[in-house]
Hints:
The protein is mainly α. The protein has two domains: about 5-55, no CATH class; about 65-295, MetI-like (MetI-like fold), CATH 1.10.3720. It is about 75% helix and about 0% strand. It contains 13 helices and two strands. It has helices spanning about 5-25, 25-55, 75-80, 80-115, 120-135, 135-150, 155-160, 170-195, 200-205, 210-240, 245-250, 255-260, 265-290; strands at about 60, 65. A two-stranded antiparallel sheet has the order 1-2. The radius of gyration is 26 Å and the shape is globular.
Amino acid sequence: MTTHEPTAAGRGTVRRLAGTLHRRPRLRLALLLTAPLLWLAVLYLGSLAVLFVSAFWTTDSFTSQVVKVWSTDNFHALFTTPVFRQVILRSVGVALAVTVLCAVIAFPVAFYTARVARPRWRPLLVVAILTPLWASYLVKVYAWRLILSEGGLADWILAPFGLSGPGYGLPATVLTLTYLWLPYMILPVHTALEQLPANLLDASADLGARPGRTFRSVVLPLVLPSVAAGSVFTFSLSLGDYITVQIVGGKTQLIGNLVYSNIELNLPMAAALGTVPVAVIVLYLLAIRRTGALNSL
């Protein structure tokens, strides 16, 4: 008899606990979110806080040791040193160029997969778009290094036209990053076009609007939030990338390269450089907030 009493008591406790959680959905939600929010606060936000604080430290010029003395010299150097300014502007320009190219390429591809292709083929086309994401990042970048090399596939294709490939440099970096992050732009645009009501297009045609006018007045306003949502990924991933530019960028330098090169020699300066992409991305998110793109993520 006594051996069954703990089991019955334990079952009663479980039932009471389950009843309490059922009656209090907010408590249930809080218990579910506590662990991931702690992980986010401690590891992610905590690391960003450490990065920001260490950016105000200095480095002993003789021993290269970090001196934990509060100073704004690193940020002053970022905005007064021509090299740093050029690299920051170049990095932002590369991220914007990649985002624009991804949007230009993604729209016709997504329009075909969402509106033109037969319904039974659309899931297969989406899988085909996602397939490159399953391959290794380094494998894809080194593949583009071979394509863009002297005498490579790019030179072979352009040779009949009397042209040559871009080689290694800034154009190669933009081209490779566009290939890497293109699926992140196609998918939200595909979803928006797939959900676009067909009767809107029919109504626009019945009112005498030509395809160009229909695109500008009907399609683009409805798809623009999804384009902005995709741009969050393409812009942020391009801005923080440093491996691609090391492999196909030649002598090109971006923010990530400067951060990597300063980690050993000048950690506070590397931290100050690391805050730049964070600040730029925050400003970018605030700029596109009005489009409703954040609701599409």
